[in-house]
Design brief:
Length: about 190
């Protein structure tokens, strides 16, 4: 009996396999995604990408201008997530996790940077669409972002990022109100079972 392997050649890259029509699914993580390092790595390699995420950040800040004062009561850093060099405005704490007001939009921005960098890696989600996209917890925002990016819908991209900022601010406000803040690096719900 002779069998033929269906496995791709080791010399075939993932990008080549996907461009060749191999089905794939994109997944988006939720809270606790290590967004800071992923974002820093990507923007340090590609100035155009850095400029793009900064432009999105500015546009989101402008979109949220009508509620900027309300957001300042939760997020005193202001309405920007990133500085002009595409670095987070809020420094990473050594002993505590980011609050949701920083992590929710930060995770989505890192996911945005990953999506924006895929074409340079040879993966074009518009030309060779994934057969599905799933998100865990706040990863559903990433799924919505993917839809907007694939449709070249800049307004949709800004809207998803604005929603992430509002969700993060609301979660932080509620967490503070109920005194459910982080303990060390543990998010609030990790203590719920104790």
């Amino acid at each position: 009996m002779h069998t033929t392997s269906q496995a791709p050649s080791p010399a075939t890259t993932i990008a080549e396999r996907l461009s060749g029509g191999e089905p794939y699914i994109i997944t988006f993580g939720g809270q606790a995604t290590p967004w800071r390092q992923a974002l820093a790595d990507l923007v340090s390699l590609d100035q155009t990408l850095a400029d793009d995420v900064v432009a999105v950040d500015r546009a989101v800040s402008e979109r949220l201008a009508p509620v900027a004062t309300d957001l300042l009561t939760v997020t005193p850093r202001g309405s920007r997530l990133l500085d002009d060099a595409a670095a987070p405005v809020v420094a990473q704490h050594r002993t505590t996790a980011d609050g949701a007001d920083v992590s929710v939009p930060g995770i989505l921005m890192a996911q945005h940077a990953v999506l924006a960098s895929l074409p340079a890696a040879g993966i074009d989600t518009a030309a060779h669409a994934p057969v599905g996209a799933i998100g865990h917890s706040q990863g559903v925002l990433g799924v919505s972002l993917l839809d907007a990016v694939r449709a070249s819908d800049r307004e949709g991209v800004i809207q998803v990022h604005a929603i992430a900022r509002l969700i993060g601010a609301a979660a932080t406000r509620t967490t503070r109100r109920l005194d459910l803040g982080t303990v060390g690096e543990s998010p609030p719900c990790s203590r719920c079972a104790a």
